[in-house]
Amino acid sequence: MAKVLTPRNEDFPRWYQDVVAKAELAENGPVKGQQVIRPTGFALWERMVSEMDDRIKDTGTENASFPLLIPQSYMQREAEHVEGFAPELWTVTHAGGKQLEEPVVVRPTSETVIGEYMAKWVQSYRDLPLLLNQWCNVMRYELRTRLFLRSSEFLWQEGHTAHATYEDAHAFTLRILHEVYADFMENVLALPVLTGLKTAAERFAGALNTFACEAMMRDGKALQMGTSHELGQNFAKAFDIQYLGSDGKQHHCWTTSWGTSTRMVGGLIMGHGDDSGLRVPPRLAPVQAYVMTVKAGDGVGEAAAALHAGLRDAGVRSRLDDRTDVPFGRRAVDAELKGYPVRIEVGPRDLAEGKAVLVRRVDGSKTPVGLDSVTEAVTQALEADQQALYDEALRFRSDNTTDVGTLAEAVEAAGTGFARLAWSECGLEGEAKAAEQGVTVRCLQRADGTVPDSDQEPDLVAVLARAY
Amino acid sequence: MAKVLTPRNEDFPRWYQDVVAKAELAENGPVKGQQVIRPTGFALWERMVSEMDDRIKDTGTENASFPLLIPQSYMQREAEHVEGFAPELWTVTHAGGKQLEEPVVVRPTSETVIGEYMAKWVQSYRDLPLLLNQWCNVMRYELRTRLFLRSSEFLWQEGHTAHATYEDAHAFTLRILHEVYADFMENVLALPVLTGLKTAAERFAGALNTFACEAMMRDGKALQMGTSHELGQNFAKAFDIQYLGSDGKQHHCWTTSWGTSTRMVGGLIMGHGDDSGLRVPPRLAPVQAYVMTVKAGDGVGEAAAALHAGLRDAGVRSRLDDRTDVPFGRRAVDAELKGYPVRIEVGPRDLAEGKAVLVRRVDGSKTPVGLDSVTEAVTQALEADQQALYDEALRFRSDNTTDVGTLAEAVEAAGTGFARLAWSECGLEGEAKAAEQGVTVRCLQRADGTVPDSDQEPDLVAVLARAY
Ligand SMILES: [Zn+2]
Ligand SMILES: [Zn+2]
Description:
Bound molecules: zinc ion
Oligomer: homodimer
CATH superfamily of the largest domain in chain A: Bira Bifunctional Protein, Domain 2
Number of domains of chain A: 3
């Protein structure tokens, strides 16, 4: 059979493009840098939204919806923020056939407009913390785009919270990082992530501190999967977000913001995919079990339908493919491309022996299973393969992470993976020098891998890598 | 106690504004006509999305995501479409600090861009029907706006499908109208809706036929709650959506589109609200039961928490309000404003007798209930009150619907409700004349209330009303 995809070790970026196209995940939109997310790709995102949204709500955060368009003047109120985002803005100048009095921008992120409303809604310490989130689209002008990874428009969630104290804001920023982001990424996406602090150079425009989750892709490069920002009182001062304390005095709030996007779909592809296509972790998978008729006749259709119904009854997200007018081989290749965790192939020969074949996407193994045991076998396979994907990704990362002693060694090691270097050996100068060679500090960690409270802590370790 | 809201019979539009503000549902955005949907309002929309999305998926439709920005040239390909939408467009002219080569518009609806992709994706009859939907934001320039009802940006779902035959497209348009829209509105929103055909004057720009769901608000005016359009082959021809038939020949597809929006939140408010605020039907309600401590002490907090836990275990969406530092009266007024279907008030006096008080929002009734029976009483009340709200709305509509014989009588009757007039007595001329007095034909129905296939059927009845 001809190769459907460019092999990864031949040309990884080309392999990625092939998977996105052939698994029918997304396409370029008609306007430069925009994307069309097709049903197969969107179903992955919907499952991400559902799992993330549960975790976000568990923190007490409520969803809301803020406008797409933001007055230019809002963007300008926080000095670093406007500087960071000015080059990326899309501007609306006309509406209803007339020129607008003040140009407005399509939100690149919503700190400013949400800040304006927080200032209205927060009056007293009783109104705090104010915990908001929205799922929406944002736009940033990008010259070089890549589907899911970097596009002019993307879908995301952006959380925005206001707190009475530094301590409360700081703790919440880290709670989102660990309990929402890292928990989702490790336990649902099956991708181990490093959590750490961004350097000043990589920080969000206007933030005191940016914390991030970084995952290793199968080419050894890093992907920033999510960020959680401590904004200090910068936005509270720019937008006058104040509260009357129990001490009878006015205080500025401490705010946070945090986001994850459709970029995670790119991370899923490059974190688990192989030369046959996507491999979707069972807990995430919109289709966990794919029941296929090999060919028509001999009760095959009925048996497949019964297995499908049994799986559904057991709470498995099953899909039935009984399109016997499409060649079986083509359908099987398509199922591999789309990364369904298990396939159940129902054909006349096995059926005559009371069996169907269980094919596991993770390792390609094919096992005949008695019809009565299919549901149980599937359930067990789904659980085991969730873990197997995580273990494999963790092993890959650890095989491709090197402790180094000098910046030169770090740049060298970042050619194939992550390099861990004492931050005192790197520093701002070393960071700038590495950047000239396409290597960046992905995050700062404590020596034990935990997240530092600030980049002023002693004995920090910098993780350097090439990144998407 | 001072009235919190302007009474409905004093000034209905003012009452509506009051509810939206005081129940903390939404506010105006900083850019004219845009809206901020606050958590209480957004939770209603989230529940609508969830219930609608289930029904949409049950039809075999899959979700996807298409770009926010559409090249102006796309809008121009279908003549009636561009004419209908040109005055409402928001235009982006600059990005990344430079002028764009071709101006692009913020989508007012996505027939054109989705048409472009359908043309790529549909090759043979095997690819049909192609059933797509997206949940997204759209923008239309509006001079006079009202929160939820008419705003420059709104959230909606837009379904877009392509079919091999007229019959299949026609049937699907009506399936959406009945099985998704009317079913959701009647069984979840508890709002009876008239389903019918729009006249040529009220049709979607570029459609052959527009079918609609129309509900009566408590001021007797109509609100269009959702529309389902038969687009014939107009868009298929403009965008070259063709398929190779089983006859070996190329054919143009027949397409449909259909939408519902955050406007339904406005319908919910005006369809069920009373002088104390919102009344949310239990099946929709994000908070079905609101458990309140009347004041602290005497085991009240513990009892309330236990009742809340018991309700949650029974699958009731319960919220606990134990803020004894906020006056009880203020909390109770707020609960009425927000329309929680039932409240459980837990106070020391009732508790001493082993009871709590069940307050039903629909009729304001207060009943002491033994602690052991609370869950059962709540469950029964929720079921009964879902029906009670529907019955009340249906009675109101039927009390305010008049069969009339002349256009003059119809315009008169439309002052307080719906008028039913033979379409042959009204016609295009009568429709234009009524419009001068602010009365429009909401839909055409057959004499038995069912939906006609076209406005050419004999003996049609026109329903006339003032409308939002
Ligand atoms: Zn201060
Ligand atoms: Zn044709």
